[in-house]
Specification:
Shape: globular
Distance between the termini: 19 Å
Radius of gyration: 14 Å
Helix content: 40-55%
């Protein structure tokens, strides 16, 4: 799978339609609050257990999740 390889996946990959709604920005959360939430999530990551299933990829190890997240961030 391209997301788990050492190079970023090509741009334009779309989630399944049923998942797309989960990627819409919430209108009730300000940018400042979203940044606070993101920072908290990043702080929790090193101690995260069990590793949650990825909705698109299924079960992954922590290193696979980290590669997935880095490749995803590279698309932005």
């Amino acid at each position: 799978n391209a997301f788990l390889k050492m190079k970023p996946a090509p741009a334009g990959i779309r989630p399944p339609a049923a998942m797309a709604k989960h990627f819409e920005p919430r209108r009730d959360v300000t940018l400042d609050e979203a940044l606070v939430r993101l920072r908290r999530a990043v702080e929790r990551w090193p101690a995260a257990t069990p590793i949650p299933k990825n909705p698109m990829m299924g079960a992954m190890t922590k290193p696979q999740w980290e590669r997935f997240l880095c490749n995803h961030a590279a698309l932005h």
